[in-house]
Amino acid sequence: MADPVVIVPAAGQGKRMGGDANKPYLLLGKRPVLAHTLEVFTDLGLFSRIIPVIAPGEEEYFRDLILLPYFSEVKELFFPVTGGRTRQDSVFNALTFLRGKGITGETIICIHDGARPLVSGSLVRSALLAAGELGAALVGVAPKDTVKRIDEAGFVQDTPPREHLLLAQTPQCFRFSIIWGAHLKARGDGFAGSDDAVLVERMGMPVKVVPGDYSNIKLTTPHDLEIARVLYPF
């Protein structure tokens, strides 16, 4: 089986984060957020290609602020791809690039948010292993709070039991044939999902859950950035 490939969507503008720079380039300690995230995957030494998905017009920004300062010694692993209008479009762009490079159906594709720099290497390994055995896997954690389902007017409809709920995280890993087919179907149907796993789910295919980590937060707001600095003093 071919070595796995990782796609790292980092094309979002992060409007909820505020500030002048897009969130992948905000500093966490002395390094940009995206540099911390990518380092997890270079340090593992498992991936044949690393595909950062960069916002249109930020290709030189990525090269000068991320690739050359921090990854010059392994830059041959990096194949930046330009992102699309949505995260789903961005991942599809990366998959299309990989298909053009001859990636086979059995190759495991790992998709991880560029704004999740606190992911551990062991968690990535667990997701890869599960996907290699079963074809599709995601990491996630149980909600700590009671979850209410509400209607459009803001009234509670019901309270789903927490033992059947999951807060999905990334990485999410799939055989290339599975995730490519799922994205093609979603595009054909005009379906927009909030993550990649839902595209696979709607094809009726099982997705294995790997226990995640509550520290593996996505940096969406300034408060998240402060939490990250507490959890890991970069």
Task: Outline the secondary-structure elements.
Layout: E1 5-10, E2 27-28, E3 31-32, H1 33-44, E4 49-54, H2 59-71, E5 81-82, H3 87-100, E6 108-111, H4 121-134, E7 136-141, E8 149-150, E9 156-158, E10 167-175, H5 176-189, H6 197-201, E11 208-211, H7 222-231
Parallel strand pairs: 1-4, 1-6, 4-5, 7-11
Antiparallel strand pairs: 2-3, 6-10, 7-10, 8-9
Helix pairs in contact: 3-5
The total domain count is 1
SSE topology string: EEEHEHEHEHEEEEHHEH
Q: Please tell me what the overall shape is.
A: globular
- Any idea what the CATH architecture is? Alpha-Beta Complex
Task: Please mark out the parts with pLDDT under 50 across 5 or more consecutive residues, or reply none.
Answer: none
CATH superfamily: Spore Coat Polysaccharide Biosynthesis Protein SpsA, Chain A
* Beta fraction: 15-25%
User: Kindly, what is the distance between the CA atoms of the first and last residues, rounded to a whole number of angstroms?
Assistant: 36 Å
Radius of gyration: 18 Å
CATH topology: Spore Coat Polysaccharide Biosynthesis Protein SpsA, Chain A
For the largest sheet, list the strands in their spatial order: 5-4-1-6-10-7-11
Helical segment count: 7
| Counted beta strands | 11
SS-derived structural category? alpha/beta
Mean pLDDT: 94
- Share of helix, binned: 25-40%
What's the level 1 CATH class? Alpha Beta
